[in-house]
What does this fold into?
Amino acid sequence: MKKTIIFLLTASLFLGCKKDQKSGVAFYYWKTTFKLSGLEKQVLLDNHSDKLYVRYFDIALEPKTKHPYPVGAIHFIEKPQLQIIPVVYIKNEVMLQKGLDIQNLVKKTIGFIAQINSKNNITIDEIQIDCDWTLGSRENYLQFVDLFKKNCGTKLSATIRLHQVKYFEKTKIPNVDRGILMYYNMGRIAPDSLNSIYDPDIAARYLASLEKYPLPLDVALPIYSWAIQIRDYKTIGLKSKIAISDLQNNPNDVHLNSRYFKVVQSHYSSGIFYRKGDLLKIEQIKPEDLKNMADELKKSLKTIPSEIIFYDLDACNTKQYEKGFFEQVARRF
It folds into this structure.
């Protein structure tokens, strides 16, 4: 009887802690200059968020030499007053290179992050690697992560796509402290797709795999929208950070239905040419979509995520959501 009572007390304490565990709120910051607007600061305050995952730079291949080089490094106009986690986006083309000097790439990547931190007096305790690696780039990528973790001196996280979860026995698991499940960009960017950012039917094909994935996972959710430019039933362009309201106020565009606009007068906008007759297909994430995503994932993840990261912090993306909404979504886990 005594052992039974002890067991029940222990179990109740464990369940109580799990129930009380809450997912924190964080945001990605995906610009080349760091300067928070008043609205962006207010979003952080309203959602009790004190952490930003800041894109420091991309790594791509130099066109002529085919050597890896940094692209679009962040420039801090103001010093961050909250916790910063540097994110380095590595194009898969880099990891596909045969004979890639991984040791040199790791050294230069860590060195460049340290240089940015030193210049801006930023202290970090984590770095995140973002790369949509494939079977062809798997070995280079895994070696890169292994060596990076040994030399970076901080915690290390990595982004994980849905296909990498479902087929992890083939794609393998990077040697990091935790993964960030990128729960978006699920479908094809095409004239006839439902919504390439989030499609519940496509998501359903992967959810069952989450329970089997060995790496601890936090979650990244989308809050952005874009317009797909269609001409003669073919996709010819993609304009990010645009909403239905932007097109509704443009006299050159006519609203056809909930997803499509038609260009009625040829014009240029932000350096892009829109020809009369082009269609603009809006793909966006509505508040109800985010709630559905949270509920789907809660049923499928093995553990409650320590934080939910929203992509990405920008006034254009956040204006459609009510005060404190992102914290509400995180509380659904």
About this structure: The two ends are 36 Å apart (CA to CA).
